Known about the structure:
- The chain is built from two helices and no strands.
- It has helices spanning 4-30, 33-58.
- The longest helix is centred in the N-terminal third of the chain and has 27 residues, at 4-30.
- The two termini are 16 Å apart.
Amino acid sequence: xxxxxxxxxxxxxxxxxxxxxxxxxxxxxxxxxxxxxxxxxxxxxxxxxxxxxxxxxxxxxxxxxxxx
Length: 68
C-alpha cells in the first residue's frame, strides 16, 4: 500500500506532465504562449474539479466493490 504522501507526489507530477503537454499542444496550435498556458491551466483546474465530483459520485455506488 502506498503512503498518502507518495500518492500526493504522484498526483502532482502527473498534473505537471499534463499541464506541460497541454501547453505545448496549445502553443503549437495557437502560437501564443500566454494563450497556451491559460488553456492548460484552465483545463487542468476544470479536470480536477470534474474528477473530484466524479469520484464522490462513484463513492456512493457499491457496484464492483468487494467486502472483506
